[in-house]
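ok so for the tutorial part 2 we go from a plain amino acid sequence to predicted structure tokens. step 1 is just haveing the sequence, like this:
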Amino acid sequence: MKHSLNSFALTGLIFLFFTVSVFGQNNRQTENNTIGWYAFFANYKLDDKWSIHGEFQWRRTDWITNPQQNLYRMGINYKIHPQVTFRVGYAFIDTFNYGDQPLAGNGIRFPEHRAYQMAIINNPIGKVNLTHRFMLEQRWVGRSLDPNATKADEYVHLNRIRYMFRADIPLVGPSLEDKEPYLAVYDEIMIGFGKNVNQNVFDQNRLGILAGYRFSGNFRIEGGYFNQIVQFGRLVNGKNYFQNNKGLIINSYFNF
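step 2 — the prediction. this is what the tokens look like for a chain of 256 residues:
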């Protein structure tokens, strides 16, 4: 397992180096937004290996006032090892017009259909539980090339790979038990690839610093600071355009 951990750490360092290289460019413009993300995750256990996953993420700007994005995701989990779980599933995403510059050039609200495959690896070291999440996504993003359009009239296919590293630290005792608090920090980077990727080979980076409480094995909740950096797939005034979205994230987890 130590060799696996070293490989995962090396992967994370490569991603971070790539991120720093992209952000080092001078030909860019950035806008800042305040966001609030409120997410509900649920898993229903069928047996020792199989379970069903469902989630809803309500993403807002100006903390909670205006819509940013709604995400609905479902999947089927298969545990091949006590520390390794695979998931395949489908997601629907509804993205709104927000910020100084809309994600869509003509400012339309647009849908996205997504298939995904995921591997989650838990690697406890002492009292700290490390999690590595690898995800591959096939995305069909709605768009319209008509500058006067009010909704999407076609879909473009995009591919994206994601890697998330997370550390959970119990605050009472050597492991997290019921009715105990914990701290967590994570970072996730997303890389686009394929023939339809434009400016945003680097697509996003997400950082969370959280405090949580485990009420029982069936329910826990966490919240804290969240930072999302998004690169547009198009140039704005001849420059690479980024959103720097900062704010609050609250996650609720249910196990049945």
